[in-house]
Write a structure and sequence with these properties.
By secondary structure, this protein is an alpha/beta fold. The chain contains 12 helices and 8 strands. The model has no long low-confidence stretch (mean pLDDT 91).
Length: 279
């Protein structure tokens, strides 16, 4: 267990890392937290965004691991994953990975909560229809229901896909910081995206972007039958708020809270709102 992991683990909890097999020769890293004393029977399962690092949600993890069993899943786009040479990186495949992990963890029907952030939201939505043990509730934190990438960026990725040493990290950070992210009102998103890019495996990241480009969540949303809490950040221009509102209009049982910025959606306030929702 690395020192970075212990930094956001509540002092009353223990945590350990494991690699869980999701298909032949493909394993994903899961960080599991166990409170020393808890009266909570519900388990929380968290799926982050594209190359999102756990530290970005350190305050959320710290607060919730005080008394909830908690599993943080890193999807196959992360550097930590072990993916066989023919492995796919699309959203549906990642959703099936969650199904395999839920089964391995032995979670019980309607006795756990699924939380997704950004790309993690369509991943857990795609998993929902295949799960035998359904979650009691789900939480969508600043969801990404559609993946928009400029044609020029996809062409650039395809042109450099086979060259592991040719990275676009610096360019991607510059482009996001100057053309996509609201630096004035949502400065935390600059840090979140930069840390994700710094930790990313370039080849896996490129394959994932190409695989998820053009994906849309809309039809799959209709398969969700459990209550959902949506936490949004209206000052966030990285995620498209009108699309988040469309999610809310489709879901059958949905609560919505606007936290305005990603500093708040990634902080203790978000954790307390999640705690209130799932108690």
């Amino acid at each position: 267990m690395g020192s970075k992991t212990t930094l956001f683990c509540h002092e009353s909890a223990k945590c350990h890392e494991q690699m869980i097999a999701v298909e032949k020769r493909t394993k994903l890293r899961v960080i599991s937290y166990s409170p020393s004393v808890t009266d909570r029977n519900t388990t929380i399962v968290f799926v982050g965004g594209l190359s999102t690092i756990p530290e970005s949600f350190g305050s959320v993890i710290y607060e919730l691991t005080r008394d909830y069993p908690f599993h943080y899943i890193e999807t196959r786009d992360h550097a930590s994953s072990q993916v066989n040479g023919s492995g796919k990186f699309d959203i549906i495949t990642s959703g099936l990975d969650i199904v395999a992990i839920i089964q391995t963890l032995g979670l019980i029907h309607e006795n756990y909560i699924l939380i997704g952030y950004s790309m993690g939201v369509p991943v857990i939505v795609e998993s929902y229809r295949f799960l035998k043990a359904k979650p009691r509730q789900m939480v969508f934190v600043v969801p990404t229901p559609v993946f928009h990438y400029p044609n020029w960026s996809l062409k650039l990725i395809k042109a450099t896909l086979g060259f592991e040493r040719i990275t676009l990290k610096s360019f991607a950070k510059w482009y996001l910081r100057n053309f996509i992210i609201n630096k004035r009102d949502d400065a935390e998103m600059v840090n979140i995206s930069a840390k994700a890019l710094d930790s990313a495996d370039v080849v896996k990241l490129k394959k994932t972007v190409l695989a998820i480009s053009g994906y849309e969540i809309w039809n799959t949303l209709e398969t969700v039958h459990c209550p959902v809490l949506v936490l949004a950040a209206t000052k966030d221009t990285f995620h498209i708020h009108d699309e988040i509102l469309r999610i809310i209009s489709i879901l059958k049982d949905c609560s919505y809270i606007d936290l305005e910025t990603n500093k708040r959606t990634h902080g203790v306030e978000a954790a307390l709102l999640i705690r209130e929702y799932i108690r």
